[in-house]
Fold this sequence. Notes:
The complex is a heterotrimer. Chain A has a single domain (32-53, 81-239), classed as P-loop containing nucleotide triphosphate hydrolases (Rossmann fold, 3-Layer(aba) Sandwich). Chain A has 9 helices and 10 strands. Chain A has helices spanning 44-51, 73-78, 95-105, 110-124, 139-151, 169-184, 196-199, 219-226, 231-239; strands spanning 4-15, 18-29, 33-38, 59-64, 67-68, 80-83, 157-161, 188-192, 204-209, 212-217. The two termini of chain A are 35 Å apart. Helix content of chain B is 67%, strand content 10%. Chain B contains 14 helices and 5 strands. In chain B, helix 3 (58-69) links the parallel strand 1 and strand 2. Chain C has helices spanning 2-15, 19-32, 34-37, 56-67, 80-88, 102-109, 123-152, 175-206, 208-213, 219-249, 257-281, 285-301, 314-320, 324-338, 346-366, and strands spanning 45-51, 71-77, 94-98, 111-119, 161-168. In chain C, helix 2 packs antiparallel against helix 8 (175-206), helix 8 (175-206) runs antiparallel to helix 10 and helix 10 (219-249) crosses helix 11 (257-281). In chain C, strands 2-1-3-4 form a 4-stranded mixed sheet, sandwiched between helices. Chain C is 66% helix and 10% strand. The longest helix of chain C is centred in the middle third of the chain and has 32 residues, at 175-206. Chain C has 2 domains: 2-38 and 173-366, no CATH class; 45-152, 3-Layer(aba) Sandwich (abc type-2 transporter like fold). The interface between A and C is medium-sized, with 32 and 26 residues. Strand 4 (114-121) of chain B pairs parallel with strand 5 (161-168) of chain C.
Amino acid sequence: MEDKAIYTENLTKRFGNFTAVDQISFEVEKGEIFGFLGANGAGKTTAMRMLCGLSHPTSGKGNVAGFDIAREPEKVKQNIGYMSQKFSLYEDLKVWENLRLFGGIYGMKSKEIAVKTDEVLQELELERERETLVKSLPLGWKQKLSFSVSIFHEPKVVFLDEPTGGVDPVTRRQFWELIYQAAERGITVFVTTHYMDEAEYCNRVSIMVDGKIEALDTPKNLRQQFEVSTMDDVFQQLARRATRKAD
Amino acid sequence: MKQFRSFVRKEYYHIFRDKRTMLILLAMPIVQILLFGFAITTEVKDVKVAVFDPSKDASTQRIKERINTSEYFTIAEELTNIDQINDIFKYGKINLVIVFSENFAENLLHTGEAKVQLIADGTDPNQASTLTGYVSGILGSYQQELMEQYQVPFQIIPETRMLYNPQLKSAYNFVPGVMGLILMLICAMMTSIAIVREKETGTMEVLLSSPMKPIYIILAKAVPYFTLSIVNLITILLLSVFVLGVPVSGSLFWLAILSLLFVFVALALGLFISTLVNTQMAAMLASGMGLMMPIMLLSGMMFPIESMPPVLQWVSAIVPARWYIEAVKKIMIQGVELQYIAKELVIIGVMAISLIMLALSKFKTRLS
Amino acid sequence: MLKFLIEKEFKQIVRNTFLPKIIIMMPVMMMLVLPWAANQEVKDVRLSIVDNDHSVYSERLVNKIIAGGYFKLTDVSASNPEAMRSIESGKADIILEIQDEFDKSLINEGVARVMISANSVNSTKGGLGSSYLSAILADYATELREEGGQAVVTAVEVPSFGVMPQYKFNPHLDYKVFMVPALMVTLLTMLCGFLPALNIVGEKEAGTIEQINVTPVKKLVFVLAKLIPYWVIGFAVLTVAIGLGALVYGIYPVGNLLTIFLFATIYILVVSGMGLVISNYSDTMQQAMFVMFFFMMILLLMSGLFTPTTSMPEWAKTITVFNPLKYFIQVMRLVYLKGSTFFEMIPQFLALCGFALALNTWAVVSYRKSQ
Lengths: 247, 368, 371
């Protein structure tokens, strides 16, 4: 199992009587782009927070980048990147300062950070905004910056929680190009999304309904299995089974 | 009206949901009254003093007995050497040393050269002068007795009456202060924060786009804090009467009217602050610094206004709490008639009206 | 790692629209305004005199009282009820009523009585005012006796003794000398206590704490990064305050300045740690602010800042054992007024170290990176 980027076994999280994540088991290969789909309230974010070491599992096992999420959450954190659903960089810091801060937290040297910052800003075409306070950037740029911060230290796995929410279609395209570039460098990408066209870009997708994983395969196989033509239809069929109310 | 009620209900939800803040708002007056009533005291009671007595004769013995048996002092230490005084003060347990001159009784009767030196630790000037004052009083009455005994001519005997507060309890002075502080805190600080929070989260826009008139939205915000301050006011009065034994000697009706007027001033101030700032933090700090500090310092609650330099005395005149506290002292504790607090009532009334007008006009210009 | 986090904290503080203003304004305001206001000295007690005697003796007495400068004569009323009205309307604090035939009883019987009625709602004022007035009366009597003594020829000996008060460390009983060192403590407490209290919870509200929690940053490092900036600010502010105290009021510590800074080093950690603990447990800034305000108020009132802790009842004294402010205020006053050395204040030092250790450990433990 050590060669997997992520694997879980009956991973469960309960809040009181409510089971947010119900015994999910899956594996993600190294370098894979793994789509983690589900309706609002299906338990995606909770599952992801457990994998990132932000939330303790109630039961079951999980392993990310070779470390146990329950026993060695800090080691997991050393090897992952995370981009939250809600924008969470420091708005009162400049673009380069955010990169420098997070680079520094992951133990990069000042020089290393400076070189990497130039590279990243060039890639994102954000060079002119280097000195801009993050709060005055448009949303699309913020999201791209957020992503760059999450992979700045070249983690083994990056978790993206609805990275393209509220972003225009052109920027979404650009965003996925960035994801592909990261995957090519060998970073495993674990992404949740609402956009079913984005699901098609993933190597494999899983679909969560009411805290359980109801389907897991390549987009192509899933379409065949459900005998429909788009991922959207696959999703609709599964989502209809949901009994839990969206939050 | 139905709309208005639902708005008010919403405001109540906001307050009751945050249990911790709620608890603090209700506990604050209780804790303050208890602290001010019992712990924050300048009363002199069983204070430990040291004595240096090289004479050790009948007179010094008499004096020491008197000091020791008074409810104010206990003689904790008899020094054998005058040089011990500095050390004893550094240690901090004893703040006053009474030093008798040599051959006290002898000199007392014949030469008139007998002397008692009161050496006080002057670090706390208030405490130092109070302590020396009390000891001087005891010594004075001893002297008086001697004179009566020896039928000395030209004696003036003062008969002292302490009006309103014969036991000299500090609480009498603090209770009105706490009332001013709490009412201001709850009405002004909370109202301003509540309004600014809606601005910060953007929900103010939503509220303002509703068919409700802006003035009602603001009123709805004020109602819960108004209620809360009434609850606090009643708590304070009950505690002060039944726990501290501070009486309500005057008219309860006028005390209530006075307090209501003051609450209006506080609400208007809160509204005014909310039009000046944009973040909760700024609102908190502005009302904390701009209201709490002046009340604690310039209202006469802790420090007498007459002792301040003229500039600060003028500044204190625009602190509404100063007038409120003054009036509460008169009507509640001294039990005077209405005419004696007319001045304060008028000042607070004028303040209330002008602040409400100012805040509302400011609020309207911000809307348009 | 720590370096980057501290850098970030400083940048955030400097860029905040409000904080730098507060950090500069507070010490200046507090050191320039407060010492003038925070004065419990009883001055200008307003006296209403009811002179029913109108003799040379009573007039001399009135003149003597006014000449003393301590009392301000508001009116000479015709009757007691009139004087009472002055008290009720707040125009006068004390009434001195001189009885009819004051001079006759003084000369013929050797004893005359006067009546002092003091408004004692403010007990300090009432108590001190009336005891000063009694002292003036006694003085006046002695004066009369000395004059009379020459005329009448001393038939009887007068048993008398002098009372001389003397004040150590603060001979002129200057209230500022008492307040200024303690106000420095208040200043540090407010700045280095409130600002950290708003800090972590502020990151919670902004959501940025999530991005930090998912990094391998150590809890201790994160908390240290929050502490150190306030530590630096605290030092700067204390230096400014000590400078202002010396320049404006001419108040210097009798003892060693280094001792003050040594204690401040520990003390700032204590209050910042307390702020961080509250911040960790709060969900919103408003909540943090209120909880902090609540505890701060109790701690300040029970610190001996305004009223001596020694005159508190036993239960209150027990509470003050757990009040870090009390120890630092004691230290400041000891060093400023009495020139105490470090070795004389080891109990305070140990107490403060204990608080610093306990509160900051608590701050690290209560900061949760995961639920």
